[in-house]
Specification:
10 helices; single chain; 0% strand
């Protein structure tokens, strides 16, 4: 996929086409990633819209230093962190996570994570982790990003990321023990 460069003659039309492609390719993925932070469907959708607005506004600045996916993930995570610091996030009581998962549609939310009751327990346990561990676990295990990509997205050293993944796994196991969760291997 080409980049959007303002020195091109068709720049505006080219940028719009590129944005439409990125929205179609990554739109639901970005919404699901935002949901793992904000835990409310409507807020996740709003954040996804903001991400693509920022994307469009900054397409000319994209340096190809990373893939579009990595760039969009970084924007999404930053938008989520900004949202979580906002008055709205701190003062508006979140709805029941169970209802939010149902509203989002179990099949739309990472089928491999939430399609069975055990997987719902696992997903809820992941969502209950502190943010720095949750984002490392989700990006690594559920999104399948490499450690180098995740370290770039989170702007942390790769060794710090490895520590967060290990600590996150330990916290997850501890949380799942409380639920009498049994690991099933395929």
């Amino acid at each position: 996929m080409e980049t959007c460069n303002y020195s091109q003659e068709m720049n505006d039309e080219h940028c719009k086409e590129l944005l439409i492609h990125l929205m179609k390719t990554y739109g639901s993925e970005i919404t699901r990633l935002a949901f793992t932070y904000v835990k409310k469907k409507e807020d996740a959708e709003d954040i996804a819209q903001e991400v693509f607005i920022k994307c469009y506004q900054n397409l000319s600045n994209f340096r190809n230093a990373s893939a579009y996916r990595t760039w969009l993930y970084k924007i999404t995570i930053n938008q989520c962190k900004d949202f979580l610091k906002s008055w709205h996030a701190r003062n508006v009581k979140p709805l029941d996570l169970e209802k939010e998962l149902h509203k989002l549609g179990v099949n739309n939310l990472e089928q491999q994570v939430a399609s069975q009751s055990d997987n719902i327990v696992l997903f809820k346990a992941v969502l209950s982790l502190p943010t720095k561990f949750r984002e490392a676990i989700l990006l690594h295990f559920y999104r399948g990003l490499t450690q180098a990509e995740i370290a770039e997205i989170l702007d942390i050293h790769p060794n710090t990321l490895r520590s967060r993944i290990q600590k996150g796994q330990l916290l997850l196991k501890k949380e799942l023990k409380k639920e009498d969760f049994e690991w099933k291997t395929n």
